[in-house]
Amino acid sequence: MPSMFDPATREKFRKRIGKLSPKSERRWGTMSSQKMICHLGDQVRIALGEIDARPMPGPMRYAPMRWLAIYVIPWPRGVKGPPETFTTTAREWERDVVALEALLEELAARSGQRLWPEHPVFGRMTGPLWARVTCKHFDHHLRQFGV
Question: Where are the beta strands (DSSP E) in the chain?
């Protein structure tokens, strides 16, 4: 499973993001490409502790279910994420993309951090798990836009 702590993995995602534009069309869901970029940034901000997210009750907070959701099961299309992952308002495409890339670098810079915020759906997580779930989340939404 790829990790956002790995520089080569971040570069692959950077290249995929670079194939997007504000006019990129989605294959499913309702978000625009620009809103999706901000949504991904908000998820990273939760991982960094910059946005407080309320825990959502559910089976994904239990280790076996969390493991399946992160490592095995493809994420379903059209499921609404936690409201805190829709905090940032899309403004200017280039600025939003640069901000997302900077957030990824900040996440990677904290790879040695011992304590990480709770994930609103998956509960208590380690840094390596945050780095993996971030890859899965980014891949899910980049596939949503065909890149």
Answer: none
Interaxial angle between packed helices 93-109 and 7-18, expressed in degrees from 0 to 180 and rounded to the nearest 10 = 170
For the full predicted model, state whether its pTM sits above 0.85.
yes
The region, left, alpha or beta by phi > 0 then psi within -120 to 50, assigned to residue 126 is: beta
pLDDT in tens, the chain (147 residues): 899 999 999 999 999 999 999 999 999 999 999 999 999 999 999 999 999 999 999 999 999 999 999 999 999 998 888 999 999 999 999 999 999 999 999 999 999 999 999 999 999 999 999 999 999 999 999 999 999
How many other C-beta atoms can be found within 10 angstroms of the C-beta atom of residue 43?
25
Q: Which residue has the tokens 């692959």?
A: 12
Six token digits for residue 12: 């692959």
Cα–Cα dist 134/96, whole Å:
17
Do the beta carbons of residue 136 and residue 147 sit within 8 Å?
A: no
Gap between the Cα atoms of 73 and 70, Å rounded = 7
Q: How many CB atoms lie within 10 A of CB 64?
A: 8
Containing 33, the helix (H) or strand (E) segment is helix 33-48
